[in-house]
Amino acid sequence: MKRLIQYGLVFLILTFFLVAGTVVVIINLDPNALKPVIQQWVKENKKRSFIIDGDLQIDLYPRIGIRLSELKLSEYQRSDPFASIENVQISVLAWPLLRKQVIVEHIVVKGINAKFIRYQDGRMNFDDLLETDDEPPAFTVDIAQIESADNHLVFMDEITQQIFVLNDLHLTTGRLTSNTAQQISMQSRLISTRMENTDSGSIAPEMTFETQLNVANIAFNDQGFSSDSMRLSIQNNDFADHLTASVSVSDVRKSYDQLAAELVQFELAVKQGEQTAQISLDTPLAARLKDQQWNLSKFKTNFDFFHPAHVGKPLHGRFAGNLNLNMHAESVHTALQGSLSGSTIQAVVQMRNFSEQSYAFDVMIDQLDLDSLLPGQPSQTREPEVEKKAQLSINKMQIPDISVFRDLNLHGSIRIGELSFNDIQSSGIHLTIESGQDCFDIRNPTQ
Hints:
Elements: H1 2-28, H2 35-46, E1 50-52, E2 56-59, E3 64-74, E4 81-92, E5 101-118, E6 140-143, E7 146-157, E8 162-173, E9 176-177, E10 180-194, E11 198-199, E12 202-203, E13 207-220, E14 224-236, E15 242-255, E16 258-272, E17 275-288, E18 293-306, E19 315-326, E20 331-340, E21 343-352, E22 358-369, H3 370-373, H4 385-393, E23 396-397, E24 409-421, E25 424-434, E26 440-443
Parallel strand pairs: 5-6, 5-7, 22-24
Antiparallel strand pairs: 1-3, 2-3, 3-4, 4-5, 6-9, 7-8, 8-10, 10-13, 11-12, 13-14, 14-15, 15-16, 16-17, 17-18, 18-19, 19-20, 20-21, 21-22, 23-26, 24-25, 25-26
């Protein structure tokens, strides 16, 4: 027993000196000596050049703190720059590491500059960074907060020749784990242009939007994901006097190829000179992603529109119905009912063949006052009332300027209970419209 106690004391003393020596070495070690090791590991394992031009600082008490600055990462197997970061700060709790848990108190990132490219063959310039091993990670990760500011991201698409730039991007998050995100908030300035508008690396913007994205309580699993709410809003003051748009999705669920949302809300408001347009849409959503079928089973929409060249006074509409979009079959079908500036309307509309569009429709309107809807016409010498009625009673009536419909493949009918047009009153109108015709066929008119 005495010898056992002696051996135990010796073991404790040796352990103490080993731990103390390790701590002394770590404290006195210059962290910048680790930079070549890190850079070599990235080069050998990721086939990219990684340079740390700034200082590498490490704190061990009261928590592990890591600070890096002036980071640069190259393209895959090339020296061209892919991304750079001004500085990064990470704070990690030490004791959970012994339980194979990485608990991060916060991550602060400033000045990310990155260029993402989709090549002509569909490959992305960051595909290699997304490759993962089949083995599960050795540590679980729990991040309390991420904050990133002053970022600049460029997305170049060589297939569509489009360029999208996110300037002044600011990102904050709540708690993040490997499969959950408590809160994500992002604000940025979005610039859209085409690749031919770039000159010597500079970008000439075509459109600029202020954007904001908020996501609450998103969770991922093997089948898909779920989220309590998602909201994206944009605003533009260059393209028009004013343009705002937003889309909100509540209680969204994705499982395999099934996507559903309890409520989708869309709002759009545009003003340019005297032209104004506002629209809102509320609907549940159900989709089969594999078959590319989208169903808005019970949508409700309100809109207001005014353009002095097209309508005589502001239009207000309110409709409800359903809509089905089938991308594989290249068809859209909708049935709706509602009102438009005092007229009650029921309609069924179907479009087929997206490349050579064909429209079929059946519309019923209780009353229609064209004089109040059409823009003002120059005054003309009035015809006698009898001649007007006689002109209406013929089977073919020429409607002014419908050439806009000439190139559309239209097939359908419109029934109007009471029609007012150019001081003409008529009822029981049945109009049939066929592609390529510049006239309406009026059947069974009653003056």
